[in-house]
Specification:
The chain is mainly alpha-helical. It has helices at about 1-15, 20-30, 35-60, 65-90, 95-100, 105-115, 125-140, 140-145, 150-205, 220-245, 245-250, 250-270, 275-305. It is found in: Membrane.
Length: about 300
């Protein structure tokens, strides 16, 4: 279980830079959202390819055709749909708003996990998520955001962020079924490949640029997103799902608003409001309650096994 917590922390660190990086590309590079996702997931797939091949050979993994299609669907859900919607979100509205709204995916994960995976939802998990959600709302300040929407662009961005959150939660739950069988490297490489293919088809049939617009000003950000946020970040995230549960792993997105806020101060020199600090406290408290509960349960299970 400790390994699962490490995966959660690492994932939160990498994912907290998603919207900041995306906003940079949207505002400075003027790159199309589908184009951005195609390039970064293509980079991620390249990074994962040798690792996936090594796992397939060393573990004698045989990929079933039905599983191949299943993982492919997961890849389309995450790379083609969810992440593209998130990139559209940061194009239409503020990065901080998109980050906080996307983190609500952990709420949607609970019913998906219950109905699809038949996972038991503990009372402490619901309590911790409720406390963390209060923190998210405090940071987000819905009334302030709604009153400040001076154009339809903000509303469109908010809808994209919510859509990305819902699709991501479904991907999280569905990936649980195959990640244990194939492992993170193989699963992610296949998923990335299908997602990249779907994105390429979208770019071709909608006559959007594929590599045009990539410059020295944005290539570093694209490489960072492809290597760290997509390749390494996805491996850590699915590792968290494997070592804990889909619901527990989704707490990454309740920790993320706090980390994203801190990083925005360091990277973008933004000021932290008092409400944000209060919200961060709630998020940390909620996450701590969930981690403590799982740790206690794990210790009790180990004692039972020994007896």
């Amino acid at each position: 279980m400790k390994k699962g917590y490490i995966f959660i922390i690492l994932t939160a660190l990498f994912y907290s830079t998603q919207e900041i990086s995306g906003k940079f590309l949207a505002s400075k590079g003027k790159m199309d959202p589908f184009q951005v996702m195609f390039i970064v997931f293509f980079i991620g797939a390249i990074i994962l390819f040798p690792l996936a091949i090594k796992d397939i050979k060393s573990k004698n993994i045989e990929i079933d055709f039905n599983d191949l299609i299943y993982i492919g669907i997961c890849g389309v859900l995450s790379a083609t749909i969810s992440m593209s919607m998130l990139q559209f979100a940061v194009t239409y509205t503020q990065a901080s708003t998109s980050a906080v709204l996307f983190c609500t995916n952990s709420i949607f994960t609970v019913p998906f996990a219950y109905f699809i995976l038949k996972e038991k939802v503990k009372k402490t998990t619901l309590i911790s998520m409720a406390i963390s959600l209060v923190g998210v709302v405090i940071i987000f300040q819905p009334a302030k955001v709604i009153s400040g929407m001076n154009s339809s662009r903000d509303f469109i961005g908010i809808l994209f962020a919510f859509g990305a959150a819902i699709v991501w939660s479904l991907y999280t739950v569905l990936s649980k079924k195959k990640i244990n069988k194939y492992g993170g490297y193989v699963f992610n490489f296949i998923a990335f490949s299908f997602g990249v293919l779907a994105l390429l088809l979208i770019l071709i049939f909608t006559n959007r640029p594929i590599f045009h617009g990539v410059t020295t000003n944005n290539i570093i950000v694209l490489l960072y997103m492809g290597i760290f946020i997509k390749a390494i970040g996805y491996i850590c995230y699915l590792g968290a799902v494997k070592e804990t549960s889909a619901v527990t792993a989704s707490t990454v997105f309740l920790i993320k608003p706090a980390l994203a806020t801190i990083l925005s101060v360091v990277v973008l020199s933004e000021k932290i409001a008092l409400s944000t600090i209060v919200g961060i406290v709630f998020i940390v408290l909620g996450s701590y309650i969930n981690f403590s509960s799982n740790k206690k349960e794990n210790v009790n299970n180990e004692k039972t096994v020994k007896v």
